[in-house]
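Before relying on records like the one below, remember that each one covers exactly one chain. Contacts with other chains, cofactors or solvent are not represented anywhere in the record.
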Amino acid sequence: MLLRQSFTRLQPVARPLLARHICRQFTVQFGDVVDANLGFSVPYEKRASQLGGTGLFATEPIKAGTRIWTFSDTNCCTYSTPEEIQQLFARLTPSQIEDFVVHAYSDNDVVISILDDGRFWNHSANPNCGSWEGDEDNTYAIRDIESGEELLDDYGDYQDLQWFEELCEGTGHTSVAKFFKETT
């Protein structure tokens, strides 16, 4: 069994350059329809979670160390400035803004909006999924996961990006990272 210490998030890596490159390309944007399982490399299903809302559940056993989900410019949109988020919010309805805020997260000074089913990952202080040291963009099983078990990540590992927190508060919402850091 692999230990949680083998996995980290928020390591200084080249992601900010990649994220800014993706933002300039606007390969995808929030609200675009993408293949729901685009970034996934394991079988899963989306269904009601005991934690609330919708969750992702393994439909087969997943071995520790297996890559579960891959970050790419076709299943994520990244924003590196407050102006980019403000431009986005100007195009969205209040319910779309709320949906964006509760599913987006900050990491390495960018805001990331997952457009495939990865956006339905739920939080746990004892996650079974996380980043692999040296590959912080993608998500791996950090321990063996049984068939039927919900895929869980620790939102507390995400960055509190001050300018994004202020924009969220300006819409009357709290980012998922800030919410879970304040409540756990």
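Residues 15-25 form the longest helix (11 residues).
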